[in-house]
Amino acid sequence: MVNLVKGQIRQSLSGYYDVMGEDGVEYRTRARGNFRKKGQTPLVGDLVELKAEKVDQGYLLKIYPRKNQLVRPPVANIDTAVVVTAVKEPDFAANLLDRQLLMLENHGIRPVIYFSKCDLLSEDEASEFTELATYYDRYYHTYMSNQDQVVASLMANLKDEVVVFMGQTGAGKSTLLNAIEPDLQLETGEISKALSRGRHTTRKVTLIPIRESLLADTPGFSSFELLDVTVTDLPTLYPEFRQYQVNCKYRGCLHLKEPKCAVKEAVAAGEILQSRYDNYCQLNELLANQKPKYR
Ligand SMILES: Nc1nc2c(ncn2[C@@H]2O[C@H](COP(=O)(O)OP(=O)(O)OP(=O)(O)O)[C@@H](O)[C@H]2O)c(=O)[nH]1
Ligand SMILES: [Zn+2]
User: Fold this and answer.
1) CB 77 within 8 A of CB 171
2) Which residues are annotated binding-site positions for GTP?
3) Which ipTM score applies to this complex?
4) Could you tell me which residue ranges the CP-type G domain spans (predicted)?
5) Cβ(222) – ligand 1 distance below 6 Å
6) How large is the average pLDDT for residues 112-131?
7) Helix (H) or strand (E) run with residue 76 in it
8) What's domain 234-288's superfamily in CATH?
């Protein structure tokens, strides 16, 4: 008897896709040539339909439309990305954090911020960062690594979601994933990673069920590519701009040189963080000078 089942790809490894069926059964499947012809590659996180004579001999029939997808890690239908950002070592860079937040907003992925290495801050620096974290927390859930029960609060926020971890190299992604699930035993630190380079030659991506969420065990990297965003869409990716722009005098105000701009007034009044606004102006210039893309 041949079974037709709907499910979600939970793991991809050397051309095999392990699918958790809606019937609670795990199927090992392959993609037939029909996907290649269409130029489609199944991704972990994909909602699929499959046919299986035996649980280890299924094949994928259909991939349902994705709500989003990332390149690194290659995962589809992501609900939330935890942006791991070191407050020190490497030095905190507000514009890097902001770019990651924008990229995620643009993909329809909810960003959550995790400030790592807070234990390295002096008392003065710590109070400065707490202020910064409080600002970001108004618009995104924000955690500081030295908070009490930080892993438990973070995980409570990620229930029933597909979650990826991202951030600069050395930010502490593997360390955080290990704290969430010690069984992962991900290597941390540059030296141990350098020693084992080349050992893991197969590319495996897994969504692991941990405390009622599905976590990608492969951390992602920050993307420094130019955003695929128009100059007019850019300000809509800043939640605090969205909040103030209704009071701008001009419709479609880009908050640059326009008079009576509520966003600029909020920056001047210290209600919007100067670094966020400066970063916006920089990106606007970058996008405005970007060569048009022909598709
Ligand atoms: N003091 C302190 N060190 C940390 C913390 N989190 C991570 N580290 C250290 O920072 C270094 C990098 O951490 P990793 O977890 O390997 O960073 P990563 O983001 O996975 O790095 P890549 O795999 O290179 O992208 C390691 O030496 C960790 O021990 C923290 O909260 N406090
Ligand atoms: Zn404005």
Assistant:
1) no
2) 116-119, 167-175
3) 0.98
4) 67-224
5) no
6) 96
7) strand 75-76
8) Probable gtpase engc; domain 3 (1.10.40.50)
58 in ligand 1 pocket by Cβ < 6 Å? no
Q: What would the CATH number be for the domain defined by 3-65?
A: 2.40.50.140
- Which ligand has an atom closest to residue 172 CA? 1
- 48 pLDDT more than 90: yes
DSSP 224: -
Which residue's structure tokens are 């035996």? 54
Q: Residue 178: CB within 6 Å of ligand 1?
A: no
Task: For tokens 């009490």, name the residue.
Answer: 148
What does the pLDDT look like over 165-176, one tens digit per residue?
Answer: 999 889 999 999
Ligand 2 centroid to residue 109 C-alpha, Å: 25
* Polymer length of the chain: 295
Show me where the domains of the chain are located: 3-65, 70-216, 234-288
Tokens of 120: 């390295």
Q: What is the pLDDT of residue 293?
A: 59
